[in-house]
Amino acid sequence: MATKTAPKVHFDYDRSTLTDEMLLQLYKAMLTPRLIEEKMLILLRQGKISKWFAGIGQEAISVGVTTAMRSEEYILPMHRNLGVFTTREIPLYRLFAQWQGKASGFTKGRDRSFHFGTQEYNIVGMISHLGPQLGVADGIALAHKLRKEKAVTAVFTGEGGTSEGDFHEALNVASVWQLPVLFCIENNGYGLSTPTSEQYNCENLADRALGYGMESHIIDGNNILEVYTTVNALAEDIRTNPRPVLLEFKTFRMRGHEEASGTKYVPKELMEAWAEKDPIENYKNYLLGLDVLTEEMHEEMASQIKEAINENLDIAYNEEAIIPNLETELLDVYAPYTYQDTPPNEETEELRLIDAISEGLKQSMERYDDLVIMGQDIAEYGGVFKITDGFVDAFGKERVRNTPICESAIVEAAMGLAINGKKAVMEMQFADFATSGFNPIVNYLAKSHYRWSQPADVVVRMPCGAGVGAGPYHSQTNEAWFTHTPGLKVVYPAFPYDAKGLLAAAIEDPNPVLFFEHKALYRRIRQEVPTAYYTLPIGKAVSLQEGNDVTIITYGAGVHWALETLEKNTAISADLIDLRTLQPLDTEAIYASVKKTGKVLLLTEDAGFGSVMSDISAMITEACFEFLDAPIRRVTSIDTPIPFAEQLEEQYLSRTRLEERLKELLAY
Ligand SMILES: Cc1ncc(C[n+]2csc(CCOP(=O)(O)OP(=O)(O)O)c2C)c(N)n1
User: Fold this and answer.
1) Lower Cβ count inside 10 Å, N or C end of the chain?
2) Which atom of ligand 1 sits closest to the CA of residue 162?
3) From the CB of residue 416, how many other CB atoms can be counted at a distance below 10 Å?
């Protein structure tokens, strides 16, 4: 009589108290992404899909982690985590439609593969840059913690992504703030073609946790029961004792980075050794050995999954391609929002620009319980410019948060707060340091609504500008970096009244706003300002002076330089327009004035090439050419970095040349 040989099982599985039903649920959950991927590889060979990032061999991690999470908790997966999406039971046709760029996907055809989020399923997909979502997870977790909800957030990264600054910043912030985040590293041996030996020089990535004062665990990423039971126990604990935990899942990437790139650089023995540890094959054998699963049950399960795949593929293939609509594309750059006008009260007090900003911020904090402010030294110290002085006493340290020096992670955390229902204001200590948070501003905040309809309800305050003798890294006016990026709003007030009302409007607006505050005007410009909360519309310029000979268009410090010049030259009859907002731009006000005067001087503190004024010049040429009596004149700072010494700074700034250029233009 033939004896039944026990199927080969590589792992020492421990089912603990898991029921048979749970064991089978985990099996089916792993089999689903595997069969989808196998189908995708066939479609790829048939030329029916263009690209595929395989997660074959890594299914136990996605499935184990997702099963351990509650459906209302957020997961932030990467490009090899199909199992997260399938375990959350997203209808397959929607996934397929997403990959085919169809309307019933999640991005209206605007972003590919797994680059999408969905509030419906509490999944926030990656952006291509890999690291930024780690900080986004911090923000999501912070919102939970502030609301005292017992919820964990799980975020994934490959080991490759752990070399990015975002990783270190996000872990540090999570530890300092004790945020309930599970940081899941899938260490699969290679980052594209680069082996781990060329990526980092420590034995285990989990060891890094020690440096951040954080707990960590190394988990066999191919052993589904180890993944599930460990993560489940941790998640349970973190829900009541909020803290971050770093998990390093050891696994292997069994296929190329993406299918076309192959695996030639991977030693054959390594591939063979890891093939032995396939998470599904081993688990299947284990279940067969337990008699929890039979071959027949497996066949039945597999054929049901395959049938569902084929049916859903048909739905996606039969869906018509998206018909481009220019208006929709442009409209979706920003979250829909109707400006709410809160008019100013009659009682006023004289305030400096700095006080008006501080008061505006304070009144918004009073108005919105959900508003959180973050920035370096903004708590007890009150910020380097003292704008948040006294805020901790008024609103507490939870809402007025000192941050470590990590601009990227804080922009990302602000995004996470927005995803999880809060409003965030971040103070860049100096606008110059936005470079250290540039990636999440232009790639995450700016593109979020267009990509997956998620508003980024974030204001980044940007103390900027020259005239303070502070040199190349504390004097820049870098608004043009942001006006160039669709999805951001850019506000740049010149007066206390405007600053207060526009800041309130920026905080009300669910879109990301870069709010420029000129440091040299902070304590110099005073004005009567209404005492109560009020808003002013973003995107509307103001006329400060009316005349017939020339239109001067400017913003920020330029407004005051123009006013000084016109005061000195009372014979000049000029329209003076203060733009107040650079994106969106009030083209109506610009064109109306240009059509009246026929001469235009565009004044900016920024260096000339690529400045906002270059675009405004081009727009005026296109819209008002027949009305022009002279070439448009841009008066800009020179194309060098901004220097420190007073006389060099003076030579640098456009103010120096304003009067002369204005007279030349009038004489033309
Ligand atoms: C900032 C950035 N640099 C480079 C890339 C190109 N890139 C995409 S995925 C990848 C490898 C990522 O490796 P890892 O984080 O280990 O994830 P894995 O692909 O192995 O799952 C690289 C280099 C990128 N997308 N973003």
Assistant:
1) N
2) 15
3) 33
CB 160 within 8 A of CB 200: no
Please give the DSSP secondary-structure letter assigned to residue 432.
Answer: G
Q: Residue 320 is which amino acid?
A: E
pLDDT in tens, 198-224: 999 999 999 999 999 999 999 999 999
Q: Is 653 helix (H, G, I), strand (E, B) or coil?
A: coil
Nearest in space to 517 (alpha carbons), one of 431, 585, 440: 431
Share of the chain above pLDDT 70, in %: 99
Give the distance (Å) from ligand 1 centre to CA of residue 314: 32
DSSP type of residue 8: P
Ligand 1 atom 5, closest CA:
129
Asked whether the CA dihedral 273, 279, 284, 290 is positive or negative, the reply is: positive
Cα atoms in the Cβ-side hemisphere of radius 13 Å centred on 563:
14
SS3 content of the chain, % helix, strand, coil (to 5): 45, 15, 40
What's the 224 CA to ligand 1 centre distance in angstroms?
25
DSSP 285-304: HHHHHHTSS-HHHHHHHHHH
Using CA atoms, how far apart are residues 660 and 667, in angstroms rounded to an integer? 11
Decide: 448 and 133 in contact? Cβ < 8 Å.
no
Catalytic residues: 474
Nearest CA to ligand 1 atom 19: 191
CB 562 within 8 A of CB 586: no
CB 139 within 8 A of CB 417: yes
HSE-CB for 217 with a 13 A CA cutoff: 17
User: Tokens in use for 128?
Assistant: 């291509």
Ligand 1 binding residues, C-beta < 6 A? 80, 128-130, 158-161, 188, 190-192, 253, 257
What is each CA distance from 276 to 179, 249, 270, 462, in whole angstroms?
A: 37, 17, 10, 55
- Distance in Å, CA 308 to ligand 1 centroid: 31
Instruction: Choose among 67, 68, 65: nearest CA to 77.
Output: 65
Beta strand spans in 317-457 (E): 348-352, 371-375, 400-402, 423-427
Local confidence band at 1 (pLDDT 50, 70, 90 cut-offs): very low
Phi, psi angle pair for 605, to nearest 5°: -80, -15
Q: What is the rounded CA–CA span in Å between residue 68 and residue 232? A: 5
The residues that bridge with 600 in the sheet, in sequence order, are 551
Mutate to test the pocket of ligand 1, among 183, 192, 439, 444 (most ligand atoms within 8 A of CB): 192
Q: Which of 427, 428, 421, 416 is nearest to 368 (CA)?
A: 421
Looking from the CA of residue 164, the nearest atom of ligand 1 is: 1
Residue among 658, 654, 657, 666 nearest 547 (CA): 666
For the stretch 470-512, pLDDT in tens is 999 999 999 999 999 999 999 999 999 999 999 999 999 999 9
Provide the mean pLDDT of the chain: 97
Q: Which atom of ligand 1 is nearest to the CA of 257?
A: 19
Residue in 158, 157, 153 with CA at minimum distance from that of residue 235: 153
Distance CA 542, CA 378 (A): 32
Per the listing, tokens 């600054």 go with 165
